[in-house]
Design a protein that fits this description.
One of its GO terms (molecular function) is monooxygenase activity. By secondary structure, the protein is of the alpha+beta class. Helix content is about 25%, strand content about 30%. It contains 4 helices and 4 strands, in the order βααββααβ. The N and C termini lie far apart (about 35 Å).
Length: about 110
């Protein structure tokens, strides 16, 4: 599995609309056959930063993603909205998705 985390710092005047702007890109990516998950969060420390956590089944799925029309479309408009170059971690890890955390479970009520 290819596991990717990207931090996008958005221009302050555009940050409130960021999730709307990436909605079509997000939905199209989630429909890709090799996509395992694609999830956005907003940083609790930096109000204009959004964190994308994504995974793809393998290198072929990652390559298909970056060669897709929706990826190319997003890369064309994003430079006008971001405040700095995104930071990325991209690694290959074993498995095909999330696992349960062994150290913590809900208490029985």
């Amino acid at each position: 599995m290819i596991f990717i985390v990207v931090k996008f710092t958005v221009r302050p005047e555009r940050s409130e609309e960021w999730l709307d702007l990436v909605q079509d890109f997000t939905e199209a990516t989630r429909q890709e056959p090799g996509n395992i998950f694609y999830e956005w969060s907003r940083s609790v420390d930096e109000p204009h930063q959004f964190v994308l956590v994504e995974a793809f089944a393998g290198p072929e799925a990652g390559e298909a993603h970056v060669n897709s029309e929706h990826f190319k479309t997003a890369m064309a408009w994003m430079p006008d909205v971001i405040a700095r170059t995104p930071e990325i971690i991209n690694v290959e890890v074993p498995g095909q998705g999330w696992s349960a955390m062994a150290e913590l479970s809900p208490r029985e009520s």
